[in-house]
Amino acid sequence: MEMGKDVEANRRAILDSHSYRLAELDIDFLGRGEQRPVRMQLELQKAETLLRENQITSTVVVFGGTQIVPRDQAEARLAVAKRLLSRNPDEPRAKRSVARAESILAKSHYYDAALEFGKLVSSCCQTKGKCDFVIATGGGPGIMEAANRGAFEVGAKSIGFNIELPHEQEPNPYITPELCFQFSYFALRKFHFVLRAEALVVFPGGFGTLDELFNTLTLRQTGRMQQIPIILYGEDYWTRVLNFQAMADAGVVADEDLDLISFAETPEEAWAIISEFHHLEQ
Description:
alpha/beta, 2 domains
């Protein structure tokens, strides 16, 4: 018996209906608010599965500011700021832009240091097929790019835990492709930062850098993660931005909590702290 037009139209509507899609293929359904626990579990499991498949046993996490760029880029930004100021010499924002650009230029050496640190750690640890102490960053520009680049330039693997942000942020081009992850949830991203970490090295940075630093300090202070060295690179910057001693003097942290923090001024010094902490041969 031949189907009527109404029946045929209904058959097509059934096949096209979102309810008929396989759940794992229904992006609209997975994106609904009530499916947040499922999405969080997927973010946890995807990165964990791929890291295991790539035999990543341990990481050295590097944080730092996105605005700290190579010297040539910093000089170019300063030149642009000065040109704008020359057109509007009395404009406060133009003066402020020049001052900020000069400050960033003065910090460009941190980019070089992060690059050298990435090279040093990767050259020491990724030998004979091992994936120990793999450089892991937030996958963005600036200091993160430098650390990933250091690993890239010596032919080693490195990880990028990128995050979906309101403004577009493409991963830096030096991450190992199969080890670059995009997260929607900061909490899951932070979990993967600390899960395999054997050290944390924090270069000068802003709110995001401080967030990751204090997250790790809190976990170490409360014994909720493995023991690792937490290294602040550039003591002058960090002692101006944060007064940890004042916190201890105020009684809000214990004196021994300050022992969780070390300072380093060179890539070699940072690596020596890590090596001594873990009793590694140098």
